[in-house]
Amino acid sequence: MRTCLALLALSLLVGPAIASDISVQEALLRAKPAVALVVVEVAAEVRVRCAGGPEVTVAPQSLRETGTGWFVGPRGWMITNAHVVSSAQRPTATVKRQLTERGVRQACGELSAGALDTAIGRASIKFAPSLYVMLSNGMRIPAQIAKYSAPVVGEAMSGRDLALLKLEATDMPTLPLADSADAQIGDRIHILGFPGVVLSHELLNTSAKVEASVTSGAISGFKQDVTGHRVIQTDAAAAWGNSGGPVVTSLGEVLGVLTFVSLSGADGNIVQGFNFVIPSAAVHGFLEGTGARPDEPSRFNAAWHAGLRDYFEGRYSRAERQFAEANRLVPELPDVRRMTAEAKHPPPQPFPWTAVATTLTGLSLGAWAILAWRRWQRNRFRIRPSEVLRLLEEAPRRPVILDVRDDPAYDKSPVRIPGAIHVPPVGLEQGTPELTNVDSARIVVAYCT
């Protein structure tokens, strides 16, 4: 009984850990719907006076900057990098120069370098930035900056290069925060985001470009930025456009936020294998005092995660129902569509050789156990001849030996046991005078063939 209770207690302790053990494929499918493209468009009106002409107002082509964000709360709370949305917060001198130059060229045509600089110096500009988020289903949602911690201006970004966006949305897919204090060198991680090389790829259609890409690697170090804030180094590949993207563990939890990549000094190209991540502990601190709650439940997550669990455990009909609920909450996400189609037409299952072999082995062992039990029942009162001799020689009182062979076998056999009483089987059933005189306190040994 104590053993059974101990096993029950062990199963209760081990059970939750086993239930939380999911494959990397399932973890990434859980995470992808919560990742979205962040877009900043800076439009402007430029007042320009060309040489010898009147002052004119032109609207040059707007500047467009992209990055990655992810939902930390189901009511439209999103995390990204501050430097991704800095142009919407306050356009930089670089953005001002680019838009002013576009306006001057649009109004005045081609100019010499000196004349261009003179016209730019005389021009005035009025910015009209806009910020929106594009989900992987193509839905475009305006966003507002709810909290902003500017990146450090200089040779590196800050460990607080964070921005919190607010969208008018409900039941959004969300990502949970991991404990970055538990991170170790060598831990596997995955970066989700929208690298510019994919967004600008001429061979991909529009729908494919707004679905998050995944790169994988490991933690390769723990550093500090120029302000002394802790950052995590990783060798997972990243590019411009990945900024603000979640760095998730193999359980789909956010370990941190990609903040900056390494560039070569000569040509400014990205050096892969040396990218840096703001740890999730900084995100927790950044969210304090805001309306965003990382632990707020998401109805989309409940349906989506349950559907994935059912799918990977082979319960395809149940998975299809859960996917339908997730699709009702946030329609037409590519991953939900894809998994719904796979649940409707599941892959062929291989023949369950292991289950069949286990069943047959169990049945065989059961049959052998029954035969062994019946044999034991039949022979449980038998003793060996050596044991009889020992009783005859050593027992304080000699045992009574009954020869219970039937009369024909007894008469024909030359074997006679000294001191044995011959009682045929019929005599055992009916009783004989020989048995009447046997002392019931003595051991009785019966011999038969």
Rg measurement, Å: 41 Å
**Fraction in beta strands:** 25-35%
Largest sheet: 6 strands, antiparallel, barrel
CATH A-level architecture of the largest domain: Beta Barrel
Structure overview:
The structure is a single chain. With 449 residues, this protein is α+β, with helices and mostly antiparallel strands. It contains 16 helices and 16 strands. Helices cover 37% and strands 26% of the residues. The strands form three sheets. The protein has a six-stranded antiparallel barrel with strand order 1-3-4-7-6-5. Strands 8-9-10-13-12-11 form a six-stranded antiparallel β-barrel. Strand 11 (246-248) and strand 12 form a beta hairpin. The longest helix has 27 residues, at 353-379. It is rod-shaped and about 150 Å long. 31% of the residues are buried.
Topology:
Elements: H1 2-19, H2 24-31, E1 35-49, E2 55-58, E3 63-73, E4 77-80, H3 86-89, H4 93-108, H5 113-122, E5 124-134, E6 140-149, E7 162-167, E8 188-193, H6 196-199, H7 206-209, E9 213-224, E10 230-234, E11 246-248, E12 254-263, E13 270-279, H8 280-287, H9 299-312, H10 316-329, H11 334-344, H12 353-379, H13 385-394, E14 400-403, H14 407-412, E15 421-422, H15 425-430, H16 433-436, E16 444-447
Parallel strand pairs: 14-15, 14-16
Antiparallel strand pairs: 1-2, 1-3, 1-5, 3-4, 4-7, 5-6, 6-7, 8-9, 8-11, 9-10, 10-13, 11-12, 12-13
Helix pairs in contact: 9-10, 10-11
